Amino acid sequence: MLRSVRVVCMNHKGLVPVIFAVAMLSLLSVGAGASSRPSATELAAITERGRLLAQYDAAAWHATDAVMASHPKANPSGRYIAHKTVAGWVVDFGRLNETGDKFLVAHEAVQTGSSAQFEVRSFDLLREDTGWNLAAAKGIEAAMRDFGKADRPYNVAVLPAANGSLYVYLYPAQVKEGVYPLGADVRYRISSDGMKVLEKRQMHKSIIESVPARSDMAVASGYHTHVLSDLPEDTDVLLVLTRKPHVPEVVVTQTYMYTIDVHGAITVADRPR
Q: Do 258 and 270 meet the contact criterion of CB atoms below 8 Å apart?
């Protein structure tokens, strides 16, 4: 099924809907749909996960830049795993050991100020971790085994979930400046030890890559549809918080129309008939 993505733009004549046609534009969100209007609590939880995803994404990006600027003896390899502390984000770069019972940290980047400021420590004798980093690394391996090979670069993020379990997100990475991909993304819930997939949620099916608006137009909002889900997804919030310029996104489902504002907050209304 084909779907179009609209970005509502402003020119000198007022609001004009500009339709960007892209191959494979269906966003088939697979998962449990909402049987009734979602509560404010439910929408706030999606917002919170999306905000954490955006923070994780930014922390991984700036931490990687900081590690490279420290001129390490070898380029970081293996996995990057981030976690949020009271003081800010910490991103560890390393790999599982051969027996899979330790995560070996080669570099650690600690947020020291703004979201872009990180201080780097490197370990000639690799630091052995058996806590969050180990569970997260094993969870990533479990998710990637299930996900299979991809024909484009993907980002990975790990967030805490209920009862000590983990959320592992796989979502397409931005490969071109100004073009923001959405779709073909999955959220896994993994057991606390990182060994078992407890739940898989296909958030969107096909990838949409937004095309920059014409230079004579100011973007007012984005727009896309969910066909099989009556809820927005965590990565919809991620898109709004990372896309530039920062504009709201309207997500239309079979029953509802959601607006995600530039801070990630979600409001819901009945879909116009």
A: no
